[in-house]
Amino acid sequence: MYKSLGLHRLAYRAQISSYVKAGLIDQAIKTFDEMTKSNCRVFSIDYNRFIGVLLSQSRYDLAEHYYYRMIPQGFSLNSFTYSRFISGLCKVKNFILIEKLLQDMYKLGYVPDNWAYNIYLNLLCCENQIDLALGVVQTMVEKGREPDIVTYSILINGLCRAGRFDSAVKIWCDMVRKGFNPDEKACRALVLGLCRDGKVDLAYELTLGTLRGRIQFSKSIFNSLINGFCQAGRIDKAQAIKSFMRSNGCEPDLVTYNVLLNYCCDELLLEEAETLMRKKERSGVEPDVYSYNELLKGLCKANRLDKAYLMMVNKMEAKGLCDVVSYNTIIKALCKASHAKKAYKLFEQMGGKGITPDVVTFTILIRAFLSEGRSNIAKKLLDQMTGLGLLPDRVLYTTIVDHLCKTGEMWMACSVFCDMVEKGITPDVVSYNALITGLCRASRVSEAMHLYEDMHTRGPCPNEVTFKLIIGGLIREKKLSLACRVWDQMMEKGFTLDGDVSETLVNAIRSNDASCIKI
Asked: Which residues are within 8 A (CB) of 113 and not within 5 positions of it... i.e. 6 or more apart?
């Protein structure tokens, strides 16, 4: 009898295997159910194999169902199937079941393999569950499973993304001390994070300083460090890294040169920038549109507009390296130099050159003509803009609101502000301050207070300028008790009032019972 039941079980197993190989998973499930309801005995290995099939087909709900059916029967998965189960559940972010499986494994004396741990850690870090990830690693070590290079890379990347650089550095040092050489992803995450945090020396020491000769650094790492030192204003160190990069068989690329070019143009080292462009070309690295736009920006910043324009027309356009950013750079410089008419002529040339103006182009020009009091041209530009299907952004709306407030057209300013909100564009603190300024100046402080209260309930939070505008308006309208209340709120936020304004309020409090003043 036992022999016949064993043969019966083998027949079921063979049938299930046949269905799985043919891709008939639903038939395999039906057969497995028949097998578990038959008289033949089912073992842990049957559940392991079957749940493994469900996992390979991403049928995680069914895998969970059969797992909970299996447990009361005294069966368990083996370590391998548990690990694959945890890995699969990470795809659907089923944190509750993952934790359940981990606890069940630990009770059985099993430990997930590094593959499963690393997939789970990566999910936790991507979900910003950093502390939970660190706890999992601690348990992993306590259970005798040592982190590998992938584990360290995942943690370092996650910690850097979360801005927890001290913890990232600690784990990095632990990794290096254990003899692991970090991979490209971990290196880049640490260097970029530390450089953004202003810790460029530490980024250098932990990579080039400590691991020199142990690993081959990529151009990306060298470029990140060069950029970090340029951002810190330490061009000599950046140049030294470029030289070291070359001596180690890693030739500077376009990114390297563009980083250095950006620094030179920002610092108005224009001769050095032009020399760098020539060096770049001699090295076989052709400048791209970003390179030329950086040099264009530097020339405009130095008020060398004629040279900037000639470079754009004679060099950039000839090489097909002229874009809307190039035109916007010169248009902005011309407007800043009070040459709005020339800027408008340049704008008119864009279409003939096959370059379509963008929102930035129109914003620059509209702001310039509004400041010159030429609202008719500004209106014409706004019509052209909407005709091209371009919608005003927050910056342009704020520019228009600010101009209308300054010219005393408060009804129109409020209308434009409301239009911005209705279009789904959230005003920022600058937008609110522009309208509050106009309302206070027009002795409409009650309306300004409504906006101020709206900022508290919906955001953005009032800044120091907002508080000063509101308090100043309230003082002018003799609403001193309300001014005192806003002053209290201002101090709670850590802002201070100008001496003369605060003195006015203090004197009013001394001479009057502020709480009795009629608002």
From this structure: 79, 80, 83, 145
